[in-house]
Amino acid sequence: MTDFLIKSTLSLVVLLGVYYLLLEKEKMHRFNRFYLLFALVFAMVIPFITIEIVQEIAQPTVTPGNIQILPTTAVVVEETNYVAIALWGLYGLVTVVLGFRFMRNVVQISKKMKSNTPIAYYNAQLVLVPEKTLPHTFLNTIFINETEYNNRQVEAELYTHELTHVTQKHTLDILAIEVLKTIFWFNPIFIFYKKAIQLNHEFLADEKVVHSYNNVPFYQSLLLSKANANPTFYLASNLNYLITKKRLLMMTKTTSQKISLVKKMTIIPVLSILLIAFCIKTVAREKNNTIVQQQPILNEKIAIAKSALQQIEKAEKPSDTVKRKKLEVVKIRNEEYTKIGSLYFNDKGSVDINGNPAANGYININNDVHFYVTKGTEREYYNRYGFRVDSKGVKLNNDTITVLEKDYQVEASKLTSSDQVGDIYTTTGITEKPDFPGGMMEFYKFVGQNFKTPEQANLKGKVYITFIIEKDGSISDVKNIRDIGFGTGDEAVRVIKLSPKWLPGKMNGVPVRVMYSLPITIQSAKS
Q1: HEC string of 41-89?
Q2: Alpha-carbon distance values, 200 to 21, 101, 203, 221, 242 (Å)
Q3: What percent of the chain has pLDDT over 90?
Q4: DSSP code, position 244
Q5: pLDDT (tens digit per residue) in 472-519
Q6: How far lies 182's CA from each of 164, 234, 294, 496, in Å?
Q7: pLDDT reading at 238 higher than 50
Q8: DSSP assignment string, 206-220
Q9: Alpha helices, DSSP H only, in 214-287?
Q10: Cα 493 to Cα 518: distance, rounded to the nearest angstrom
Q11: 248-295, pLDDT tens digit by residue?
Q12: What is the dihedral of CA 480, 481, 482, 488, to 10 degrees?
């Protein structure tokens, strides 16, 4: 909300300043009317416009920044901000009062229209009122004193003036600015916009009268004679609004087309500067980061693979309390295959129900299920723990295939106390969860104090880390599951390895190894 108010108010101030300096004094009233209404719309919309510019950076440096550690399950307690509640309450109260005042005036004018005599007049209607008043207009209705009308004391110039307000629908402009004034009553800039719009309306009406009757001195004298009359409703277009030197001089002023064009063109760079200042957002991206670009595709494939591998693990190691379904073995083209989902696999790879080879799928290596990805004409193999291996199952290096944090907890709600991956338990399958000394909030504080974020503008995202809490509470097997580049994953691994010993998780009172996942939300301190 604060960002909206700052951007919209600054835009309104700048555009109104341009109007007063360059446009108001020139005789191009139709363009000025459009400009003032456009300025209001532009200022309301510009806070919601964002133009992203991607900045590629090869080697980011790391400095302390702001991070937010989000637990898998956390309860956040927020203090009640009574000052904010009081301010919003005051805003609501004042807005309701001003809204009631606005509606009351509309109702009063409507009653005035219905309770007095209407007379058709060109594409408008005259409403004859008994009270002494100057001609004034609301929507397509012109209010005139009944006695003056019957005695033919209303000059033709005044009829033309008010009829111009009707035909050009000036009341709609007034209603629009009044609605904005009601909503943003605390912002005085809208008062100046209303004055500028109303004065512009009078310029337009005066221009029509001067063009129709070509008697400027008489019309000026007529306006001056009406200058001290009582004001009418603030929603109506009034004949004697701001009868000042500006209106009288404008009747005789001329503006060349060249000056008019130059001043109109000046608006373009002003709008461009506002867009650049308020809408341009620089987004940092690591150069040639093909892994990040392919991330969503890999995640989708590995999510399926991980789920299938966990099913196999559960089938190979059934619990005492839950009966597991054996994987289905079928024959396709005289070869035996094990079914997972819609694929069938053996030690040669995966096929579909028709025996057609699958580019990505499962394969038996040394009687263990692996996942493979075909890249070009070559296959890459990964074991069930995510490590890359060769075609014989030998671990190549510490490269791992990227998986989402949630993939380590596939169907977590269905796990029982005996569910485990090898001798590693999940947090949902044990009787006593591991805990950091002093509680989890201390752990989040520890990570936040030690984590250093890249020095990049508008760097936002999540880093997913998994690690194993050993039976003695020490940390092992820290893995970066997913990061946002710029060294954020390596930094998260470094910080987790600094962690002191935890209170280990337990299964029926016996310490066990537990896999733990940690998402870290990063928001760079610089913007």
Answers
A1: HHHHHHHHCCEEEEEEECCCCECCCEEEECCCCCCCCCCCCHHHHHHHH
A2: 15, 25, 5, 20, 11
A3: 23
A4: S
A5: 999 998 888 888 888 888 888 999 999 999 999 888 788 888 888 878
A6: 27, 14, 51, 54
A7: yes
A8: HHHHHHHH--HHHHH
A9: 216-225, 245-250, 257-279
A10: 11
A11: 888 888 888 888 899 999 999 999 999 998 888 776 555 554 444 445
A12: -10
| Calpha distance 357→330 (Å, rounded) | 16
% of residues, the chain, pLDDT over 70: 75
How far is residue 360's CA from residue 58's CA, in Å, rounded to a whole number? 32
Regarding beta strands 510-523 and 424-425, do their DSSP bridges make them parallel or antiparallel, or are they unpaired? parallel
Question: What confidence tier does 103 reach under pLDDT thresholds 50, 70, 90?
Answer: very high
Residue matched to tokens 């890459």: 380
pLDDT, position 320: 40
Q: What is the pLDDT of residue 410?
A: 31
Q: How far is CA 8 from the centre of its chain?
A: 16
Mean predicted lDDT score pLDDT of the chain: 78
What is the chain's length? Answer: 527
Give me the residues paired with residue 506 across strands: 432, 511
Contacts 24+ apart (CB under 8 A), 120-126: 121/159, 121/163, 122/163, 123/166, 123/167, 124/162, 124/163, 124/166, 124/167
Token representation of residue 84: 């904010």
Residue with tokens 């409403």: 127
The answer to whether residues 313 and 304 touch, using CB atoms and an 8 Å cutoff, is: no
